[in-house]
Amino acid sequence: MSKPKLYSVPGSGAMICEAAFALAKIEIEHVDLTWNDVGWDSKSLQSLNILGQIPVLEFASGEVLTETNAILHWINSQKRSIGLIVSSEDEGYTKFLRWLMFLNASVYPTYTYGDVPQRWVANDPNAMELLRQGTENHRKVLFQYMDKEAGAPYFLGEKLCAIDLYLWMMCHWSPGEAWFKRTCSNIFAIRTNVEKIPEVIVVSKRNFPRE
Questions:
Q1: What 3-state DSSP class applies to 56?
Q2: 93-197 CATH fold
Q3: How far is Cα 38 from Cα 50, in angstroms, rounded to an integer?
Q4: pLDDT for 134-154, tens place per residue?
Q5: In the chain, where are the structural domains located?
Q6: What is the pLDDT of residues 14-27, one digit of tens each?
Q7: How far apart are CA 54 and CA 84, in angstroms?
């Protein structure tokens, strides 16, 4: 049986899916792109995802799955024992749903609009800087809000879930590890605990070979 292909850029949000595949022990084929080949003008992703966004999961059948949350649900459906998607019958289900969607619907868009501001306010350097700074400031507020709700050693307590993989990955991004360590100690502690998981160590080394 052919392995599904995961299209990604090293250090991107696709790391979440890569870590989930590793935890589920599902083999995949990596298709690593560069940041110059993602976005609306992506040549590699044009036929797979009209938005040119990663991650993209392509199956041997030709079917395509996009969006990190959707891919995580598929992985969990193949190996429910990893429990990354909390069952409605399990304790913490409501909290899990709330904060998983908070990350996807509130936090993630601050990167979508702030990381490449020229997509939205082209030819206006002042507007681009205002958008970049505004989204980063809002992101900091959102993370501080979430930090108050975080458990230990993982977000929901003893059991690892998808939220922890998001937080681990986002600590690599703006506003940076030093800021998280100083300002969101609970989130940073979760990031540190996730980073110790053997499967995650392998994923980290593949995505950040110089660290």
A1: strand
A2: Glutathione S-transferase Yfyf (Class Pi); Chain A, domain 2 (1.20.1050)
A3: 11
A4: 999 999 999 999 999 999 999
A5: 5-82, 93-197
A6: 999 999 999 999 99
A7: 20
